């Protein structure tokens, strides 16, 4: 593995890790993690990267702003900011590899769908794992128990103190993120994608609605 730093368009410092195969290749895969975690994706992305390298792919995984080792605070995180981070990561990879696949997990899946819909010429394939494609169903008017019970609490937080917390780690999210969730709709953008794509989503998922991936 090779750790590097690079910058998003607004100057935010981002940290990424390369996994490189022994033989030269022109194919690479970029991994986009979910919310509250980091580029390791609880170890899953590390294992996936190793497997892809064994099959001849270069792999680049990175921390979005406000996550892991990258700069910025989680409270300042926005969808447009994450899109800028992903754009910077793919542009970096594009400097060395001409064929790129993108894999986004959970929250990173929605960001990946939004990016791909506007940049299909830069990618050869898209893979989404349990993607957050509908922010209304997942955050604004959630139905799944893990977050639905806190819906009123979250709304009150956003209105009164302009931030709230998410998950067991008390990950801090700001009002701007929720305002952008009203505007961005990955489920509408994904149907515009014409490059090869696949969505993998278990029907017993308790965090992200399986129905949104159908």
Automatic annotation (TrEMBL):
Gene3D superfamilies: alpha/beta hydrolase. The keyword Lipid biosynthesis does not apply. InterPro entries: AB_hydrolase_fold, Hydrolase_4. Pfam families: Hydrolase_4 (PF12146). GO terms for molecular function: hydrolase activity. Keywords: Hydrolase. Residues 24-160 form the Serine aminopeptidase S33 domain. SUPFAM superfamilies: alpha/beta-Hydrolases (SSF53474). This is Alpha/beta hydrolase. It comes from Candidatus Roizmanbacteria bacterium CG22_combo_CG10-13_8_21_14_all_33_16.
